[in-house]
Amino acid sequence: MPTNPFDRLRQLALKTPEGAQELLPLIDFLETFPEQGTEEDLVHLVGITAMGIAKAGQGGLWDGGRWLFLRGSAPAFPTHPGEGWQVLPWRYGDETYGHLVLKTGDLPGAVPLLLSISAPLLAWRRAEAVRSTQNQALALQLSRLNTVFELTRNLGEVETRHDLVRLMANTLMGEFRIMRLLVVDAQGVVLHAKGLGQVPEALEGDRLHELVEAKGLVHAVELLDQNHSHGFAYAADPAVGKLSDDDEVFLHTLLNLTSSQLSSLELREARIQAGRMEKDLDLARDIQRSLLPKELPEPDGWQCAAANLPYQAVGGDLYDLWMARDEELGDRLHIAVGDISGKGLPASMMMTQLSAFLRAMGDARVEHWGRLAERLNRRMNDVRDGNRYTTLFAASLNPQTGDLRFVNGGHNPPLLVRAGGEVVRLSPTGPMVGLLPGVKFAEGRAAMGLGDVLVTFTDGLVEAENAAGEELSDGPLAEVVLRRPHAGADELFEALLVEAFQHLGEGRFRDDVTLVVVKRMGA
Hints:
Layout: H1 5-14, H2 17-32, H3 39-54, E1 59-62, E2 67-71, E3 85-92, E4 95-103, H4 110-155, H5 161-176, E5 181-184, E6 190-194, H6 205-214, E7 219-225, E8 228-235, H7 245-291, E9 302-309, E10 317-324, E11 332-340, H8 344-361, H9 369-383, E12 390-397, E13 403-409, E14 415-417, E15 423-425, E16 444-447, E17 453-457, H10 459-462, H11 475-482, H12 489-504, E18 513-520
Antiparallel strand pairs: 1-2, 1-4, 3-4, 5-6, 5-8, 7-8, 9-18, 10-11, 11-12, 12-13, 13-16, 14-15, 14-17, 17-18
Helix pairs in contact: 1-2, 2-3, 2-4, 3-4, 4-5, 4-7, 5-7, 7-12, 8-9, 11-12
């Protein structure tokens, strides 16, 4: 007995030979048409099937203005083609989609049946297209509301005109896919230039107009707040297409927000400029107090320090330290540091799920951290949002012996800085978690002796760039620890942050930053 429903229909049709010739093509049509097929697919399939049923060598589907489908020569008057032709309307309800025109004598009864079956499918396809367009428009509106919210919030957090203009420019270029942008102040000083090659520090008069024309900067908007002008923004068309009227309105909205914040910023710029270096140094000392959890587990003979600095109001970095019960072998200190791809609220939501999974899977003894990562990978693949994944370092530390078992899923290798001066990088034992289904993870092993320090971090720290575009990297972090052999975890934590801020100078972190320091204290 056939299990395929279409095969069962064919079997029934063959039991009535007088109807088989007409029924079998219809069954083929229904089985062939895919759910994801487009309107063009449907039109083509209807035309081919109708000509096959009628054994017609010429024919097509005419919508009143053009041929949607045509095989052979077209008649001069599609709806009145003359003798030897057959014409049937293709309609559903009150809607007529066109006419089926076939060069044939007798018209099999299956052809009208084909049109009556396919017309509702066409109506459904068009309704789906309308819903898709409406959903896309709604998604765009929601996205732009979120952009306004994020820009408004972030503009209030930056402290210099340079950072504010750069944030505005990055937002505009990302939102509209603009590849060339120029921003000058009211005196012609270039505040930001992207995709324009080498640009002078100042542009005025003819030099400005020549550059704008040569680079195709067809959109010019004054950065105006009340009656105060902060300059102009000049932008090219998007990489694909042009700005619509709605795009133009939204572009002006984002620039108006920026202009308003520039006015507010000017009122306090002198104070901020004078206190910038002191503020950055103070921030390195204050960050532990403001962001560290109230308590971190510290087994006898061990010290721990940890904190997270989100790039936005919420971030996608995770750190956790907890004591896992093991009645047989004794309690273990579990450590986890992760970095969800992306930023903001979506990454934060995924981070929350990752944290819950880790606690649920690692709240007792973990037999093999590679197997745990594989289970975690399956769960993250089930719940991940789009292409979002995470790098992850998770470990179990025996406080009595210093034995360390870990898994590194595509994470920046933590630094194990030994008291004797050796620096060991705990390299990845598998890929990112939640990126590829079914991948395997190995378990790594290490040991921490007296005076050894484990420094775990996310890429937001080591990829921090100074004004010259140079990344911090992990080498200076190891040097900080080696220069302080007698320092505790708290002192090392603060020194590492100070090193990062001194490297940045007037730059800013570009991503969430997480840092965890665990030290086995010497005698």
